Amino acid sequence: MSKPTHLTLAGARDALKKREISSVELTTAHVAAMESLRGLNAFVTETPDKAIEMAKASDAKLARGEGGPLEGLPIAIKDLFCTEGVRTTAGSAILGNFVPPYESTVTSHLWRDGAVMLGKLNMDEFAMGSANITSAYGNVENPWRRQDGSNAKLVPGGSSGGSAASVAARITLAATGTDTGGSIRQPAAFTGIVGIKPTYGRCSRWGVVAFASSLDQAGPMARTVRDAAIMLRSMAGFDPKDSTSVDMAVPDFEAALTGDIRGLKVGIPKEYRVDGMPAEIERVWQQGADWLRAAGAEIVEVSLPHTKYALPTYYIVAPAEASSNLARYDGVRYGLRETGGSLNELYENTRAAGFGREVKRRVMIGTYVLSAGYYDAYYTKAQKLRTLIARDFTEAYKQCDVILTPTAPSTAFAIGEKQDDPIAMYLNDVFTVPASLAGLPGLSVPAGLGDDGLPLGLQLLGRPFDEETVLRVAGVMERAAGFTALPQSIS
């Protein structure tokens, strides 16, 4: 059997059922990996004692022939999900000592199905970032290195950077992430793993610290497409506590991985060929289309004419919702409290000390576009454009079943490389934001290595609530790519 930390989620599941390894042994190996790779700064809070306790309970269930779909499997949780009795910070100093008295719906589903919690993962503050450099708890480091001898420390992508780094570094079998504008898919591409943003409403948002409520969606990050399918089935489901949760049956996503995509139509949007796209991105995109054609799919060109408006639309809508959601952090009810001579001073001092620079920037942008005199000029116009962007996809899916695009416009960049240029940082989301605005499912799968030896991802976008087709096509692409490279820190 492979090293316990090098098993896939599906492989570990099967090994546990066959009694080839115990959950305690599996969990202990991952706890050791967590401790030995602390230099990546992937975790905000480690819970090794809780993990071993949960593993022992899982072993007892497995010995009785019982247990759920994830029984005994060690995973980790992005620190945006509230976990009862375990600190939840959202990567922010303003929630530095917040210990929720309740459990998020998604994590309660995972514990219901037998998963074991290794800890809480680092992230960009309030999920605002594309590089995991805005966390109050320090930068997360990508376990990959460029093959140029520079040994520069690289970003893992964001905002789910801790989730991506921990899965890529074989610290955890899988992890939860959230995706508002690409925060599962882009870090998955940067670290050579699989990440899927489900359709908006597929996974409950209850108990997930809010950034932009009409965009936020939880999803899994894992080493393989099969592992992502297994995780998604446990995470998904209707929740009456979330008014945006959709009441529909959760499919067996793993069963959808038939390997047969003959007759499917794969759309290539012409508007995604942006100026200055690196040749290696164009090359891997073409390679992905060739793989799917060879597997029996038909490649067709589609048009998404309002794509060029997606980023400016997103960076109006998301900050507007953030400014509203983050108004609750006032130093009165929970979290950080700074002193002040008046109520206004208490608010101002608490937010000045508790929020980081990027969060302040987005709150100010959001407050501005919602203010009197600017609401119609910015926010109303952005909402109209969002409708047009969603309509583009509806029209495109009349000609195809899934859409294939690059996930990110580059491989992972060095920590500090784009840190002083917010616009350059926002452009990391150019390929992921449109599907977020339309609420569509999107998945990133590793497709090869760039010229610098770093992972490149390809993105598949599907119709609403058609994650099964997205996963099926991704499984075929994964097999064709044969991506087996490992980060230097663990290879």
From TrEMBL:
InterPro entries: Amidase, Amidase_CS, Amidase_dom, AS_sf, GatA. GO terms for cellular component: glutamyl-tRNA(Gln) amidotransferase complex. GO terms for biological process: translation. Keywords: ATP-binding, Ligase, Nucleotide-binding, Protein biosynthesis, Transferase. One of its GO terms (molecular function) is ATP binding. It holds the Pfam family Amidase. Its EC number is 6.3.5.7. PROSITE patterns: AMIDASES. It comes from the Bacteria. The active site is at residues 78, 159, 183. Residues 27-471 form the Amidase domain. It catalyses: L-glutamyl-tRNA(Gln) + L-glutamine + ATP + H2O = L-glutaminyl-tRNA(Gln) + L-glutamate + ADP + phosphate + H(+). Belongs to the amidase family. GatA subfamily. Heterotrimer of A, B and C subunits. PANTHER family: GLUTAMYL-TRNA(GLN) AMIDOTRANSFERASE SUBUNIT A (PTHR11895:SF151), TRANSAMIDASE (PTHR11895). Allows the formation of correctly charged Gln-tRNA(Gln) through the transamidation of misacylated Glu-tRNA(Gln) in organisms which lack glutaminyl-tRNA synthetase. The reaction takes place in the presence of glutamine and ATP through an activated gamma-phospho-Glu-tRNA(Gln). NCBIfam families: gatA (TIGR00132). This is Glutamyl-tRNA(Gln) amidotransferase subunit A. It comes from Inquilinus limosus.
